[in-house]
Write a structure and sequence with these properties.
alpha/beta; seven-stranded parallel beta sheet; elongated
């Protein structure tokens, strides 16, 4: 049986790669892959004519040209929640460092090198007041964006003794069900921001959220003296607006995982080098989820956690010989046209499943017999069809 070719870009955790079975050939040097596994490198789709899917081992997909992929019928996956615990822990680690002046106090201690114990003790007692900080307990944490990471940050805030307020204009019920009932849900972003001591941002980066944290409709609503935390994506924050807010006292601090020229060296900004998901556990979780997504799609056409196609899964029954998948622009009449073509060729449809996300329609058609290349081409020539795949299932081991 022909192997399915996978190209890896960046280092992918071995625990994930081990999940590929002998149906797959995995090679970072593959020139014509059907699937790509990537972490943070930018992807150019042009060199890969056979590409069917890209799986990002992480949540953000700003390194993948998603719109172009959609037009080419390429499914783009991410791994939401796989790195959630790593990001949640780092948010509170960094906030603790900022509140307790840990970074500056470490620098102070390093400057004591060469002194004897008596001298060190005298310096410590004389100057430790300079690093006096404050506690999280009793403060109000506002979480903007209640995906898996945002919910984790909100719930953890309660464990730190804080009052927690959350806001998400389009909350996913699967995530909200995991939100601790003690978290207050605000009716508007303005309502949430007005009570914040700390604001943690957890929104995806897209055309609607780029520069979302700016003066108008965001910082203007913030209580004076708040601390802004960004462990989402750098460009969701308008850097000039944040710098102005730090200068006028609207913000007293900014914690970010995204260093930039404008932020470097600012005394009120604490930066980490994009460490949010940089743990062994997170990388393993992301790789494992990404591999599962690619395998299920390339072997059976099932879609879970796609950012550009509707999510849809069906288990083929033992009498299915061939699975046909059709990706099309969301327009009326498509199901009828596909069914008519198959009927005219006397191909018996055992199961037909269709789903749309409002932009793209995805069809899984299980057939009792083979589907020829001629039939595949006839369906592919229909107006609005982006891609057609024929997946033989007769040798799957039943």
């Amino acid at each position: 049986m022909k192997k399915i070719k996978i190209k890896t870009i960046n280092a992918i955790a071995a625990e994930g790669l081990a999940l590929f079975n002998d149906r797959f050939a995995v090679n970072p040097e593959e020139n014509d892959p059907e699937g790509i596994l990537v972490r943070s490198s930018k992807i150019d789709l042009t060199p890969y004519p056979s590409l069917l899917a890209v799986a990002r081992a992480g949540a953000g997909v700003n390194n993948i040209p998603v719109d172009e992929a959609t037009e080419k019928g390429i499914c783009v996956f991410n791994t939401p929640g796989a790195n959630a615990n790593a990001v949640v822990e780092l948010v509170y680690t960094s906030l603790g460092i900022w509140l307790r002046n840990v970074e500056k106090s470490i620098e102070f201690c390093q400057g004591l090198t060469g002194m004897n114990d008596d001298e060190i003790n005298r310096e410590v007692e004389a100057r430790k007041k300079k690093f006096k900080g404050e506690e999280m307990a009793g403060k109000t944490m506002v979480v903007i964006g209640l995906g898996k990471i945002g919910v984790g940050v909100a719930n953890a805030g309660l464990h730190h003794g804080m009052k927690v307020v959350g806001f998400d204009p389009f909350p996913a019920m699967d995530n909200i069900h995991n939100l601790d009932p003690q978290v207050t849900l605000a009716r508007s972003r303005r309502e949430a921001l007005s009570c914040a001591d700390f604001i943690s941002i957890h929104i995806p980066l897209n055309n609607n959220t780029r520069g979302n944290v700016t003066t108008k409709d965001f910082l203007e609503f913030v209580k004076d003296g708040a601390v802004l935390i960004n462990y989402a994506r750098g460009p969701v924050v308008d850097e000039d607006a944040v710098l102005a807010a730090l200068a006028n006292g609207k913000l007293r601090g900014h914690i970010s995982d995204f260093p930039s020229v404008k932020f470097m060296g600012h005394e009120k900004i604490l930066l980490t080098p994009h460490l949010g998901a940089s743990t062994a556990e997170s990388e393993e979780n992301c790789a494992t989820m990404a591999v599962h997504e690619l395998k299920h799609y390339l072997e059976f056409g099932n879609i879970v956690h796609s950012v550009n196609f509707p999510n849809i899964e069906t288990i083929p029954t033992v009498d299915v010989h061939t699975r046909l998948t059709v990706i099309n622009r969301d327009q009326p009449g498509m199901i009828g046209r596909i069914s008519n073509i198959l009927g005219a060729e006397h191909i018996n449809i055992i199961n037909y499943t269709n789903k749309s996300n409002g932009t793209v329609g995805y069809n899984i058609i299980d057939c009792a017999g083979p589907v020829s290349e001629d039939v595949r081409e006839k369906i592919g020539q229909q107006e609005g069809v982006l891609r057609v795949r024929v997946i033989p299932l007769e040798n799957r081991g039943h």
